[in-house]
């Protein structure tokens, strides 16, 4: 096992503070965090310019329309946590998803740490957590807070190692997400993603597509709905030749909706229209835990 570098000093900045009670109730929490990296919406920030980020105009990407059955993001309170191993480009992910979430009408706060998870009052008001934190550590209080929030109905969404290779020692967390990365034979390779569910709103209308990225081999939960899969060849690990592995899934954890895609090793992966569309639609779906009936599956057909 190759040990990759850990993330550096953790800080915080808030790109889109929630208005009214949701923000003022947690003023104390914000004051405890690193003020040097705290940016408000009234500061000199335009599409992430003060971070040196390039604006990513999702309106120009070849994504498919949101299926009418998927819930709206308008007014949804979204907590975006990012950090961990920089090779998965956690900061750059804001370039892609922040403008799109805002355009969809969501209220977004971004933290470069996991501190909000431990604030129960804060988490009660969150509709969806989007997390991209690879090979990091989480405190007991933070893990318990996140688990409790999702069990109560907060949605959870993420991709690649940012959600399913976040905290390798935390099995309760892995029980919630539905999978844990264990290998990507061959590193960055060409492979095919097969859409295995053409009826679900997240993947409806999408055809199979090709990726040039890491083909994730995961240990997965059987109690989830698999929407897309991939099949391994014999080139890099002959003993898994022909193995079919989930790539995209949705599941329930108590009352919370959980959505995951193993695509997204680097942000260039989301230049593949199907990869970006699936993630965007999955975020829509996961945001509605508190507002829509739970879904139930015990048939992992893929």
Features:
9-stranded mixed sheet, alpha/beta, 24% strand, 302 residues, Rossmann fold, two-stranded antiparallel sheet
Description:
The protein has helices at residues 21-24, 27-32, 90-103, 120-124, 140-152, 160-164, 171-177, 273-286, and strands spanning 77-84, 107-111, 128-134, 155-159, 179-183, 188-195, 209-214, 217-220, 225-231, 244-253, 256-261. The strands form 2 sheets. The chain has a 9-stranded mixed beta sheet with strand order 2-1-3-4-11-10-9-6-7. The protein has a two-stranded antiparallel ribbon with strand order 5-8. It has a domain at 21-180 and 246-286: Rossmann fold, CATH 3.40.50. The longest helix is centred in the first third of the chain and has 14 residues, at 90-103. Helix 3 links the parallel strand 1 (77-84) and strand 2 (107-111). Mean pLDDT is 82; it is low at 1-57. Helices cover 23% and strands 24% of the residues. It contains 8 helices and 11 strands. The chain is of the alpha/beta class and 302 residues long.
Order of helices and strands: HHEHEHEHEHHEEEEEEEH
User: How many alpha or pi helices?
Assistant: 8
Percent of residues in beta strands?
15-25%
Task: Please identify the top-level CATH class of the domain at 21-180 and 246-286.
Answer: Alpha Beta
- State the low-pLDDT regions, or none: 1-57
What kind of sheet is the major sheet?
Answer: 9 strands, mixed
* Helix/sheet category: alpha/beta
Backbone CA Rg: 18 Å
- The strands making up the biggest β-sheet line up spatially as 2-1-3-4-11-10-9-6-7
Mean pLDDT: 82
Distance N to C terminus: 29 Å
Strands, count: 11
CATH topology of the domain at 21-180 and 246-286: Rossmann fold
């Amino acid at each position: 096992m190759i040990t990759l570098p850990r993330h550096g000093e953790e800080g915080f900045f808030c790109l889109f503070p929630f208005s009214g009670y949701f923000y003022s109730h947690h003023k104390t929490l914000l004051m405890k965090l690193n003020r040097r990296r705290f940016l408000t919406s009234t500061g000199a920030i335009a599409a992430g310019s003060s971070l040196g980020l390039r604006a990513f105009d999702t309106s120009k990407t070849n994504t498919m329309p949101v299926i009418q059955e998927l819930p709206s993001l308008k007014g949804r309170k979204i907590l975006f946590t990012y950090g961990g191993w920089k090779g998965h480009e956690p900061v750059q992910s804001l370039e892609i998803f922040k403008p799109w979430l805002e355009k969809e009408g969501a209220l977004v706060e971004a933290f470069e740490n996991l501190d909000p998870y431990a604030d129960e009052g804060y988490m009660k008001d969150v509709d969806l957590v989007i997390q991209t934190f690879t090979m990091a550590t989480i405190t007991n209080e933070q893990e318990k807070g996140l688990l409790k929030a999702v069990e109560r109905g907060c949605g959870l969404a993420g991709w690649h190692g940012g959600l399913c290779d976040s905290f390798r020692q935390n099995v309760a967390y892995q029980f919630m997400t539905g999978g844990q990365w264990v290998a990507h034979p061959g590193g960055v390779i060409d492979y095919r993603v097969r859409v295995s569910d053409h009826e679900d709103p997240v993947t409806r209308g999408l055809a199979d597509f090709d990726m040039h990225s890491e083909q994730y081999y995961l240990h997965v939960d059987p109690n989830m709905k698999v929407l897309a899969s991939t099949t391994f060849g014999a080139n890099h690990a002959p003993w898994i030749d022909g193995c079919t592995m989930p790539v995209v899934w949705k599941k329930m954890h108590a009352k919370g909706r959980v959505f995951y895609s193993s695509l997204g090793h680097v942000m260039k992966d989301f230049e593949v229209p199907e990869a970006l569309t699936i993630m965007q639609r999955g975020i829509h779906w996961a945001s509605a835990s508190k507002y829509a009936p739970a879904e139930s599956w015990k048939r992992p057909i893929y």
